[in-house]
């Protein structure tokens, strides 16, 4: 019998029990549980891995707790620029967007690009025009306003500092959401979405929309979604590197994830984590930071939730 499995993440960083109140911890766990179980229910009904990861990420994009979609952080200009990517392991088709504004659910736009475009990645105004032509929903600026995010931005908007998400140490915040899944046909898929860095300038783009860096899926190996300091994940081509270790070196999923995240990334100063799944239904939730918002569910097993390292 083919195993079905799904894993999601909501960002990584210096997340400790000292950084979250009990109320916040409950809220994060509830949001993670809702997203992962919605995706799993779809898989259990025979839905595709691609549909499951899109659904899970859409739910996370709609939750202001996470730095994606509605919860996206403010840029240097006080706007919201979002990146996202989606990849199908069966066909290896992919769709990605970078620096889009006003898109309610960027992950839905990536699905339209994957299915209705000859391109893989669209950016900025062009991506937004493509969204209008394909009836992707937009939202007003007020939809993306969050008091906590605004306060984050106010603290640094007159400086050259940028902030990532989820930590006491403002230089080490990694805010992204993602999902990976394998369906009853043995097909894998990956999806990732982010609002980037608070106070980011020059239309900075991270690893999320770059196929092979922050997002990757291949039925021959695995599906991966990353969260961390994007520049390091881009330089290390993290998601594809894990796939290569499996395909060419014979690593298990867990071994490949640990080699890249706990060894190679650390050596160059890269912090963060990732989630991965293979066609057999094995799941890896690997990170080198103090914590990573994460959840997974396999077959009829109990849903697993996690925030802190232990």
From TrEMBL:
Concerning SUPFAM superfamilies, the annotation shows: N-terminal nucleophile aminohydrolases (Ntn hydrolases)
> What residues does the record give for site: Cleavage?
175-176
Residues reported to bind substrate: 204-207, 227-230
Q: Where are the transmembrane segments?
A: none
Q: Which UniProt keywords apply?
A: Autocatalytic cleavage, Hydrolase, Protease
Signal peptide annotation: none
**Annotated GO biological process:** proteolysis
Picking any one GO molecular function of the record gives: hydrolase activity, acting on carbon-nitrogen (but not peptide) bonds, in linear amides
Residues annotated as the enzyme's active site: 176
The protein's matches in Pfam families, at most eight in alphabetical order, are given as: Asparaginase_2 (PF01112)
CDD domains recorded = Asparaginase_2
| Name this polypeptide is given | Isoaspartyl peptidase
**Lineage of the organism:** Bacteria, Pseudomonadati, Bacteroidota, Cytophagia, Cytophagales
